[in-house]
Amino acid sequence: MIRTMRRVRAHPGYEPDVEPAFRTVAGTISGLAGNLAAELLLDAAEPRTFVVVTEWADESALRDYENGPVAARLAELFRPLCEPVEEGGYRVMSAPEGGGPGARICVDVEVTVPSVRLAEFARGYAQVAARMPGVPGYLREDLLREPGSDTYHIFAEWAGEAEFFRWIGDPAHAEEEAGPIAPFLLDFRRRLFHLRTTSETTRGPSTGRESGEETVHTTTDVLIVGAGPAGLTAAVELARRGIDCRVVEKRAEPPAQADKAIGVHCRTMEIWEDQGIVRDAMDAGNWLTGQMVFVNGEETHRMSWELPELPYAHLGLPQYETERILTERLATLGVRPRRGAELVAFSQDDDGVLATLGIAGGGRETVRAKYLVGCDGAHSRVRELLGLTFSGGLGRFPQLFMLGDVDVDWDMPPGHLLRFLHETGGRMDNMLVCVPLRGESRYRIATMAPPRFFAQTGGKDAPPGFAEELAEPTLADVQTVLDELAPPGTRASNLRWSSVFRISHGIVDRYREGRVFVAGDAAHLHPPAGGQGMNTGIGDAWNLGWKLALAVRGIAAPGLLDSYEAERRPEGERIVGRAVRMAFTDELDREDLKRQFLDEMSLLLSYAGSPLVGEAVARPGTLEGPGPGERARDASGLYRRGVGHPLRLRDLTRGTRHTLLLYADASANEAEMAAVEKLCADVRQQTCGEIDVYLVASADARVPWMLDPPVVRDSEGEFRAAYGVNGTALYLIRPDGQIGFRSRPIDADALGNNLRRVFGGAR
Length: 763
Hints:
It contains 20 helices and 35 strands. By secondary structure, the protein is of the alpha+beta class. It has four domains: 199 residues, Alpha-Beta Plaits (2-Layer Sandwich); 225 residues, FAD/NAD(P)-binding domain; 108 residues, Alpha-Beta Plaits; 146 residues, Glutaredoxin. The strands form five sheets. Strands 13, 14, 20, 21, 22, 23, 24, 25 and 28 form a nine-stranded mixed sheet that branches. Strands 1-3-2-6-7-5-8-4 form an eight-stranded antiparallel barrel. Helix 7 links the parallel strand 9 and strand 10. Helix 1 runs antiparallel to helix 3, helix 7 runs parallel beside helix 14 and helix 14 packs antiparallel against helix 15. The longest helix is centred in the C-terminal third of the chain and has 21 residues. The two termini are 47 Å apart.
């Protein structure tokens, strides 16, 4: 006979959900061939800790269970509820005859404690627990309880049988150690097991990290490779829609220094508002309030980035802080990245993907998922295994660059990004970019590396990305560049870290292959100008997340996932091209710096060419607001009955569903208004409820009393002005904040046709 015991710790607040989840499959486990028992015990000392106990007739029965669908289903149910299983949290035992000499043993003493005597037992057990560590051979124990009963298990581990029987054979033990609970030991059941070593066990599906050399098998809906900003964003979007996902990351520890992106775009800030982390980001970062450009020591232009129409300003935030904030948000949704797990290989079929992971310290894990998303960066294993190539080849700048985190003493306006260029004969031959960080006089500097670093490569092409094999630049190196390019008298101090890197740029030929997708740096590589790489990767995940969620739930149109590449690859191609052109120029378009800045901040993002978007306008060109595929504009001054303060439009569109905005002013007739309620019912049915509907009415519109849809008054006309509407009209806002469809007047049939492009698979 073989017993297994797996400890799981519930996330705070999820304790009541663990037992029902176990009961869902407990009966199925009991019905499996060779199963002798299946129960869930509570740790009496740790209310959030549970122990799953199974007993099996032999090794074969255990192996069939742990490699089969029932164990995978239990792991799937526990994953969103529980923390990863810590090392040592899974134990396998065998009946006494199965152990060898000197093997550790586990003793399970089962006692009954009537509820009226529970306090007496608790006092006595505390005394016993304090005395036992002094007994030779005794190692540790747990006090476990069967849910909803008076049955407790004192589960103790001993160095061996000899030590245990020596102790119980001593008449004094009952008085000296066990005496305080002796009244409860008049009627008890004792079972003894030999604890098996890890190499003797076969382990199946787990809820988290475990040690050993065996192959672990797990299942999930979506496997995300990479715990950078793109991977974490994708996971947040899936998890907050109730989709089971796993994030694996080959780095054992999160980054601790700002050697990557530090600029958070205005559009990304809007995304973070929707995800509920914008305040955390603002609290941790600093505002980038403008930009100054100097060429050969002369200021060529200065621009303020504090524009009144911005939803949020441009934020400075080191990427390690971005990852921390996203990781913490993901944890509130019951998901934690699995670190030290590297993708080795995968295969896919019509139903899903089978991935093999290498686990730090040895061992393998296979994960069966419906979809896989590669967010594993510039050296993407997913991209490599898919055989994706860079269109036109991977470009590399011949220069080596250095980065540093340093204090700079000078007279420059706070919050400004500073670019110093040196040109000879109209060609740039040196540059220095300084981005303010949080803290007085602290900057991230980027500039060309001194010649000795290129010499260290032997004149050969250095690898893309950060070159760990090269020495770190010194404070003297930074000061040399400042002496050449910055205002006279500028001094550097307190160099916290530095590194050398090479810029690569390119975009892959496709973003999807079957059930596997790439996003972020796995799909496109950028020069660091404008911080485009991280923000574009977040935009990729933001676009893909809601579409994957519908696909997992089986309510997506057949072509919905194809729209990810159709929408994001052209955007990636445009951004890569622009970043390459900007890398060695003082500016692209001095005539319209404001528009250029808004474009860099992704506020002018448009999917106008997407197969998902459309419009039905009676007189083309008469609707002046944002068009199909463009970012939905915000508007304030909206009033809803019963709410004592004005609303923003984003208060209505925020969330995980589509939003349908129906507009009507005083010219709308009775028939048009009567059709609104039926339209609401139709679209809710067509979208399986994945839509919120509001009637935005002008201050003078005559709106009949109706409960559906909710009415919001555009009392100050801001919505009308932002969207250029009159009469009746509708706007369909997608979960990613882009406009999916618009019509004027309201065209229910055209709207239905558009929704079928998204929800054509709805059941």
